């Protein structure tokens, strides 16, 4: 599987970013760049977390910061299709609230 986030120009919808299967510190810098580019479009930012198998602290920190900035500037921000691995890691790190995810019956909705 590809370990790099998809580039906005590769997506049908440039405001959507697909997280890589393995969100390690190595890919965090590229993800940061993609988040900045997506935020420059001044539209909703959608993070697709459906392929995530592992996600590290650096990626989670970027996502929390990106959502915080989106809220500050009034720009919608959403994490779509979170995989069970992503959901479990976010729950373990107690970041559901900061990431804007709701927990229902032990799973993300």
Characterization of the model:
The protein contains four helices and seven strands; from the N terminus they run E-E-H-E-E-H-E-H-H-E-E. It has about 110 residues and is α/β, with parallel strands linked by helices. The protein has one domain (about 10-100): Transcription Regulator spoIIAA (2-Layer Sandwich), CATH 3.30.750.24. The protein has a three-stranded parallel β-sheet. The protein is globular. The protein starts with 15 loop residues before the first strand and ends with a strand.
Number of strands: 7
CATH fold-level label: Transcription Regulator spoIIAA
- Under the CATH scheme, the architecture is 2-Layer Sandwich
Count of domain modules: 1
Helix content: 40-55%
Shape type: globular
Rg over CA atoms, rounded to whole Å, is 13 Å
Beta-strand content bin: 15-25%
Distance separating the two termini: 25 Å
**What order do the SSEs take from the amino end to the carboxyl end, as H and E?**
EEHEEHEHHEE
Provide the CATH top-level class.
Alpha Beta
SS summary, helix count: 4
Counting helices, strands and paired strands, the structural category is alpha/beta
- The stretches of 5 or more residues where confidence is low (pLDDT under 50) are 1-12, 105-109
Overall average pLDDT? 83
């Amino acid at each position: 599987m590809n370990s790099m986030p998809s580039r906005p120009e590769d997506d049908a919808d440039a405001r959507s970013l697909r997280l890589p299967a393995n969100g390690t510190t190595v890919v965090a810098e590229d993800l940061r760049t993609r988040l900045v580019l997506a935020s420059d479009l001044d539209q909703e930012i959608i993070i697709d977390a459906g392929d995530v198998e592992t996600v590290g602290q650096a990626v989670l920190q970027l996502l929390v910061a990106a959502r915080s900035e989106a809220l500050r500037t009034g720009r919608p921000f959403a994490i779509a299709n979170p995989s069970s691995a992503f959901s479990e890691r976010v729950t373990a790190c107690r970041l559901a609230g900061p990431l804007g995810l709701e927990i229902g019956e032990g799973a993300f909705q």
